[in-house]
Amino acid sequence: MGMPTIAKRQRLSEDWQPSSSEREFGDAHGADVDGEADSFRDYHLARGSLMADWSAAWRTWIRASVRYGRATGQRRLPLFSVVPPSDDAYGARTWAGRLPDAKPDKMPDGTVAMCVGGYDAAATAVECCQAVGLAPDWRGSLDAIADWLRAGVSPEEIVAAVRSLAGRARKPEAWAFYAGRVMERRAA
Questions:
Q1: pTM for the full model?
Q2: H or E segment at 146?
């Protein structure tokens, strides 16, 4: 077995644009591809970066844009400036946008939602809050709902479980009260 070949590191060309497959990768991650391409190119040209694989560098850049909240046109600005409080029932969209593992995904209606476990986290949270009877201006922790989605419980199962116990909890926002029923439904 010979020595592995090390790829030659090169500078990014001044007229670099993402290839069609790189654009698809950015789109699939909910990135503003043109904006991210400009930032990527300027960043690496300004620093004189040398890379062995510029496609891999682009994929890393896009993943970081999602992780650090630059992906999607909405997430490029602070969420409070994009989603007016009156339009963010229960603070669900703001909450979903801050989940570290939430990934942007296109919904059937063409909108982009922050998804956990493949499900729209904010929509699930809103349905749960409505099922419990909370006022839209309620702002409490919705983290248990994200945990259930991470565990593979579908939004339909979560909402059905919450509905089946609604009115029995002393504090409707005490999501731990619903946990047993939610996980029961998952096992069924």
A1: 0.54
A2: helix 143-150
